Amino acid sequence: MITLKEGDTAPAIKAKDQDGSIVTLKQFSGKKLILFFYPEDDTPVCTVEACNFRDNFSMLRKGGYEILGVSPNSAESHKKFIGKYKLPYTLLADEDKKVINDYGVWGLKKLYGREYMGLHRTIFVIDEKGKIEKIVHRVLSKKATGQLLNPKT
Predict the structure, then answer these.
(1) Residue 120 vs residues 58, 83, 96, 151: alpha-carbon distances, Å
(2) Are 9 and 131 a contacting pair, CB within 8 Å?
């Protein structure tokens, strides 16, 4: 589970994007980064969250934010997801769950009385110096952007 706290240095990232290019956290040095973890491409709740960021993309960019989504899906799956919903940001394929585990978002989940291991939908805001500025643990997919920008969440 998540042991990271606001103010901690964000763990390093090195993963392939939807095009197979390597993306690292260092590439975002000097920029604010929204790093959102979601369980699976093209599922109802994940699609709502991804489209919330898409629909607010211009406003977030004007606010100085870059956006990266991370799931254990393949680069090919991400490419299809991006194309289908016209997502204007990068998705990282973390098939070996290295980034997911480094951020502590893989763990025990419960659904309809069943327990299983899975990815906890979580958003991290990382500041220009690589520090975790905000963590949203209980993401409301339809309101994800608002949760980031509203200081009371």
Answers:
(1) 27, 25, 16, 22
(2) yes
pLDDT in tens, 99-145: 999 999 999 988 888 999 999 999 999 999 999 999 999 898 889 99
State the SS3 of the chain: CCCCCCCCECCCCEEEECCCCEEEHHHHCCCEEEEEECCCCCCHHHHHHHHHHHHCHHHHHHCCEEEEEEECCCHHHHHHHHHHHCCCCEEEECCCCHHHHHCCCEEEEEECCEEEEEECCEEEEECCCCEEEEEECCCCHHHHHHHHHCCCC
CATH of the domain spanning 14-149, picked from 1.10.150.120, 3.40.50.300, 1.10.286.20, 3.40.30.10: 3.40.30.10
pLDDT band at residue 153 using 50, 70 and 90 as cut-offs: very low
Catalytic residues: 46
d(CA 12, CA 134): 17
Whether the model clears a pTM of 0.90, i.e. scores above it, the answer is: yes
